[in-house]
Amino acid sequence: MLETMAFKQGALQRPSPFKLALRTYTMVLALAAIWLTFAIMTDGAFLQPRNLSNLLRQMSVTGILSVGMVLIIVAGHIDLSVGSVVCFLGAVLAVAGSEFGLSPMNSILVTLLAGITIGTFQGWLLSYQRIPAFIVTLGGMMVFRGASMMITKNSTVPLEANWIQSLGTAYVSAQTGWTICILALIVVLALMANARRQAKQFGLETESFGAFLVSALALTGLVVGFMRVLASYEGIPVPVLLMLSLMIIFYVISQRTTWGRRIYAIGGNSDAAFLSGINIRGVTMSIYMVMGFLTALAGVVLTARVGSASPDAGQLLELDAIASCVIGGTSLMGGKGSIPGALLGALVMESLNNGMSLANMEPYWQFVVKGVVLVVAVWADMWSQSRR
Amino acid sequence: MSLLRMENISKDFGGVLALQMVNFDIEPGEIHALCGENGAGKSTLMKILSGVYPQGSFNGRIVIEGAPKHFSSIRDSERSGIAIIHQELSLIPEQSIGENIFLGREPQFAGFIQWSKLFSDAQKLLKVVGLNANVRRPVKELGVGQQQLVEIAKALSQNPRILVLDEPTSALTKEEIANLLRLLKRLKSEGMSSILISHKLDEVLEVADRVTVLRDGSTIATHDRHGLTETQIISEMVGREVSTLFPESSRQPGQVVFEVENLNVADAQKRSGYLLKDISFKVRAGEILGIGGLMGSGRSELLQALFGGLRLPVQCETKLMGVKTKIHSPSQAWTQGVAFVPEDRKRQGLVLDDSVSRNMTISGLELFSKFGFLKSLAMASHAKDMTKKLKVKTSSVEAPVKSLSGGNQQKVVLAKCLTTKPKILFLDEPTRGIDVGAKQEIYTLITDLASQGMAVVLVSSELPELMGLADRILVLNEGRITGELERSMATPEKIMTLATQSVFGGVDVRNYGF
Q1: Residue of A nearest to B180 (CA)
Q2: Residue A237 contacts B, CB cutoff 8 Å
């Protein structure tokens, strides 16, 4: 029955794989250029394992936030409240121990629950009540800044001395780190190979074995390089391990689950998503719920790293997270963006921060340079797209 | 027994009756075409069938194989075996072909998508619709015709018994259309029933077993294909007299007011590489120049290019009153005596929340100001004069323009143009979506303005309007002038032939209300 009347293959335009990966290459090259510049400006101090370890630790809060922010922006929304909510949840964590005498475990649970509640509520307001996300989260930004001042009584609340602090400051020893990295690498490579095998089984086109080998080797090189640098200092900082785990988990979720792909569908064409029977409101609300959870984790890490909660913590974090996503290739129009990209963006931003303070540049330069990099990154993207 | 019967369907939108006791049915393995003008109710009927308008929002019954059905969502309708392919392509450009086909129904295990199964199933469906493409590539890499086939694959993935196609060929090339029609016939031979909504009557007569005509929300007739002609369908679709709408007028064209030479606009996104090519014409004082063509032929873009409102580089030489001039922006156009009534009055023509008087004076505010301060009294009295002259029905000139009916809103747009006392007036679809009474008044006004010596360029998708008003008609197709007709020589057939020349196979009456 299947008499085919196939369209000519030639009519299908195929961008070369080089063009598709161009963006990633550009990002990596830009990062390399930034690192090289700072290495020269600081006589190599920037590239010391100690500094790189620090840099990664500093970016972990922004990194965790940008994991969730990518999902929100891909769905075509925005969240301006995360900076204030991070501050508020940090305060909740500190106050739960100092004022209510909760155990560290329970304090963290309360904090996570509060984060999920805040996220869900904001998500409900903007999806089911149709208030624009910009307004809901702008309101949230003010409300939770005020709430932080209220529960901290406008002063710094120290974190009770306990294991929570290690979430921000401790290291996973080099030996354990190697074990984790190698295990993770084996799992990922096995999954990649399995996906390839299955595709062949179903008679689908697959990438050539050479291309597969190159990407597997590149991944291995990246993981080994990363671990060697960190092992030659103290090991993997705990928040960095947390950030990377979240990146991998949510990357898989965003690419491999129905929930993840629906987010991209909604942002890509919400009419089509609706007509395909996708529950747009429910999915949208659930993204904010996840953002609330991630915000709570970021709040715990930030508070643990500093050792105390203060009412002015986390200012402008929301903008750092949004900027990281955008530098990493997420489109504010929705439908486009990736979690690893956003983490790369966060790494670029934090490298600028770290490098400029290491080079003893005045703090105001950090703002100017970060702002310029953000605009240039998007401009370069628009420019390369219009040339296609 | 019929596979599907829609019985006595009525639906209103806030008091406006969109469907009135419509009956429609389809047999197993039948292609049943649904014809009618824009606004006749075809899409509304199909939205009821597909569950977009749920049970309770309309009156009447949907019966499938003898059993009454209550659809409260799109999902319900899908479960009853109805799959709809909407007029606008509803694919997600950034996502893969396979993902689009199974959007919302991905094969999954514990929330994880089974990609290999999804892609291999998708590939089988592509084979059925005859599209040879990699299912992992994003949809944006496909052409429109190929995307249409993906839409059909998406519909087929639900194993439907009834396939609904809403204007499936409107954006396709001749070859793609032929492919699509062949596919429909093949699906029919395998027992699939299809409902085909189309304005292309030759296609309808080629594949349909029966044809139902809707007009103004009512069923006019259901015919067997045998012995049915395009003319019969058209007369049933239109069914009204239009010849008395246009005022008689005898004008003598005067000197040349506006002259365009070699207008070219490049557009890399078009297959041909240009939006408009080698366009030259002259308009005289007291002359109405009509511009015809199908949707997408470049008619509206031509006016925008001349008015400086097109966001693409325009190459041309223009002369106004015999003097070389360059119009780079709408503001230059207004100051040089060119006025423009845009296609979409609500989006492009009016500030809806502002008052009638503010809207009427917005294009010539310097006429009503001194040292930058506005003389509101002068504005109001001018607006009152205009209201009287154009017979605008409004409670006051300070009423917000959105409170007016469509026809009166359009008169406000015209008043805005006349405020600047232009030498030449560009009109893009000046009577779209307004009632017959207001149409007639606007036709009279346009004729009067021409009689008083204004040069008018009129773009219209309504053939009677072009033939009733214009002294000469230029016809565009794919951005080129394909012909020029004197009023006395113009017939619908001639215009249609020029408008479709060398591009489309059949006659497309989509925008022509014969």
Answers
A1: A5
A2: no
Instruction: Clarify whether residues B413 and B437 are in a common domain.
Output: no
Nearest CB to B146 within list A7, A204, A278 = A7
Nearest to residue B265, comparing CAs of B276, B279, B250? B276
For β-strands B210-215 and B31-35, DSSP reports them as parallel
Angstrom distance (rounded) from CA A107 to CA A96: 6
Give the count of domains, chain B.
3
Q: How far is CA B112 from CA A254, A313, A324, B23, B415, in A?
A: 10, 38, 28, 44, 61
Q: Is the ipTM of this complex over 0.85?
A: no
Torsion of CA A155, A161, A165, A170, to 10 degrees: 140
**Cβ contact A268–B93 (<8 Å):** yes
Residue B514 belongs to domain with CATH number? 3.40.50.300
Boundary of a domain, candidates B401, B420, B439 = B420
Q: Do B54 and B163 sit in the same domain of this protein?
A: yes
The helix (H) or strand (E) run that includes residue B248 is none
B485 close to B494: Cβ distance less than 8 angstroms: yes
- Specify the amino acid at residue B429: E
B157 shares a domain with B263: no
Residue B245 lies in a domain: no
Is there a domain that residue B342 lies in? no
pLDDT digits (tens, 9 = 90+) for B282-332: 999 999 999 998 777 889 899 999 998 888 889 999 999 999 998 888 888
Q: Which of residues 321-340 of A touch B (CB under 8 A)?
A: 335-336
- Per the CB < 8 A criterion, the answer to whether A261 and A267 are in contact is no
Sequence-separated (6 or more) residues with CB below 8 Å from residue A270: A76, A280
Residue corresponding to tokens 């955008």:
A326
Q: Which residues of B touch A264 (CB under 8 A)?
A: 92, 94-95
A23 touches B at CB < 8 Å: no
At residue B265, what is the residue type? V
Residue A136, token pair as written in the block: 């809901």
Q: Where are the alpha helices (DSSP H) in chain A?
A: 17-41, 49-74, 82-98, 104-127, 133-151, 166-169, 174-201, 209-231, 238-256, 258-268, 270-275, 280-306, 317-327, 339-358, 363-386
Determine the residue among A8, A275, A281, A290 to mutate to test chain B binding: the one whose Cβ has the most chain B Cβ atoms within 10 Å.
Answer: A275
pLDDT tens, residue by residue, A208-256: 888 889 889 989 999 999 999 999 999 999 999 999 999 999 999 998 8
Distance from the Cα of B411 to chain A's closest Cα (Å) equals: 34
B130–A6 C-beta distance less than 8 A: yes
Q: Which residues of A touch B132 (CB under 8 A)?
A: 4, 6-9, 12
The parent domain of residue B513 ranges over 252-337+422-514
- Residue contact B123–A203, C-beta within 8 A: yes
